Amino acid sequence: MNDSQEVRDNVVTSYKDAPTRTITAGGVTFAYRELGPRSEVPVVFLTHLAAVLDNWDPRVVDGIAAGRRVITFDNRGVGASTGATPRTIEAMAADAVTFIRALGLARVDLHGFSMGGMIAQVIARTEPELVRRLILTGTGPASGEGIRNVTRLSHLDTARALFTLQDPKQFLFFTRTANGRRAGKEFLARLKERTQGRDKAISLASYNAQLKAIHRWGLARPEDLSVIHQPALVANGESDRMVPSKNSADLARRLPNAELVLYPDAGHGGIFQFHERFVPTAVEFLAR
């Protein structure tokens, strides 16, 4: 066995070593990775604006994959997946369901971060038999306060990042306090741990399509979240600028079976900044 490959009994246990695979369904070839022991109900990760497979924090993925099968994937038109990126959250959710069913999965847990949390809400509402439990992080409901401003904030912080030679996520995901700055640098370093077989960056066209989808979500009519009966763990930093933290509180209040966790001195990337606290909480929630 290769010394650098963390594998136990032919099970990949480290996200940086998980091979990128593909599966074709609905006219789309989806790129995905999976790791962790085979489990009856895997955890499917739904990712954020502009993200590809390499944007998941390996500490979060590996922590949950220590006991559960974890699957990450590029939605249509993103990274190494083919097709044109949808301009609505609902279409992204339909694509995610197509991918999940193509893997032969009849029941999954969903972890949706930011835009992925919006997609997860749609799947739970439209395909309730498919979803056992929900983890909704850094996200908000349709029409949620401030979500319509994601495009403006993204453009602003991308410009700030270019001007200061930094990664936009340092501004978008983390507070500007000493703790936030340090956590951002540590997070960005972890994203570079995988050195082989890295994913393609998102295209500008796909990024703009996702921005349009999030903007529409922010302008949409409120949904009746009482129809989502799955247990839900809602988590965020207490100072999220991208999807204001009051949206997390709103989700937890409106979902009939939800619990809320907010991390101090943390922004949109609170679960990454506080991964040592978030992972045990998520593992315990999923194991119930």
TrEMBL record:
One Pfam family matching this protein: Abhydrolase_1
Residue ranges of domain AB hydrolase-1 in the record: 42-272
Regions crossing the membrane: none
InterPro entries per the UniProt record, alphabetical: AB_hydrolase, AB_hydrolase_1, AB_hydrolase_fold
Keywords: Hydrolase
One GO molecular-function entry: hydrolase activity
Protein name per its UniProtKB record: Alpha/beta hydrolase
Lineage: Bacteria, Bacillati, Actinomycetota, Actinomycetes, Kitasatosporales
